[in-house]
Amino acid sequence: MESQTVKWKHYFLYLAFIYAILYFLHTNLLLNDRPIRIKKWPHLPLRFRHDGTFKILQVADMHFGSGLLSRCRDVLPSHFHYCSDLNTTRFLKTMIQLEKPDFVAFTGDNIFGPSTTDAAESLLRAFGPVMESGIPWAAVLGNHDQESSMTREELMSFISLMDYSLSQPNPPSKDINNVKRGMFLDIDGFGNYNLSVYGAPGSHLANSSVLNLFFLDSGDRETVQGVRTYGWIKESQLNWLRSASQELQIQNQEVKYVIKTQPVDASAALAFFHIPIPEVRQLYYQNIVGRFREGVACSSVNSGVLKTLVSIKDVKAVFIGHDHTNDFCGNLEGIWFCYGGGFGYHGYGRTGLARRARVILAKLRKGDKEWMGVERIKTWKRLDDENLSKIDEQVLWELSPSR
């Protein structure tokens, strides 16, 4: 009889254990009644406005850490009673409200890994203002983003899933045997992709790409012959860039063929990545717009990025970061290379030098009755000073009158 009682006790304990597991799963894992969180998407595709303009805000080197606990670097004590990452957040909100961009491009070192133990939380805070605005945006990685709790692959995957983000871990592959989790395999890095900006509403180019935005992963740190150096854009990435550019130009030729009675301008393109190429050092001896305040920190390896950009012919300007106090634009073989200037307050700067952002404005050519292709690309910078000063406005590229 006593043995039977023990069996019943074991039986009830077993049932209680099973019930506890089911209750835990129901309330915490499987059957939660809370609504599923779905990514918010911007209105697509990206396109020029009715007035024939498309404005991009470049944000370089936010270096976001842990919010209020991440103190500012290289600022005058008299300028701020207390300065932290929140000043970076305020500046981003201000720039969005002031310039009202159609798109925001973040060019790396979005977070400063050593200053945060939770990369995902830091990313959510750093990109918070642009997500709240509902403006489409995209990002590439710098050399500091991965120095926390996520790999570069995890970072780009996470960024691609954030609200209103158009970022991609890597370009899709047309070869089903060359795909892993939907990403192109035969390419180095994470964050290589292209975004198309379509013509103005109501024009015959409304369904055609007239401006292409190329994003490339310039890496972080590497070792070459035992010596540490910065990363660089690899040949596999350049192969993809050539292929993508050629495909887009073929599409442009098809538009010309269909619309026989009206001329169609060739698509222009812009490129965005973090670490400058070695040739940018040459601009110290040339005419530039802006200031060359520090040495160009680039890789010891020259992988032929400039040669590739010149050969594909559609990229008119490249926008970079990495060297925070440089904010100049200079021309290399017909292509402008422009620094964004240091944006974030937790990144290094120069005491007394205002943080800054770059604005890029593309303008369409006006035809007899409607907007055509891109005619002009301009840029300027905004300072985070009392007047949000607008400086160094210049034309980067203009369509030849003969075309």
UniProtKB/TrEMBL annotation:
It comes from the Eukaryota. Keywords: Glycoprotein, Iron, Membrane, Metal-binding, Secreted, Signal, Transmembrane, Transmembrane helix, Zinc. GO terms for cellular component: cytoplasm; extracellular region. The chain crosses the membrane at residues 12-31. Its cofactor is Zn(2+). Belongs to the metallophosphoesterase superfamily. Purple acid phosphatase family. This is Putative inactive purple acid phosphatase 28.
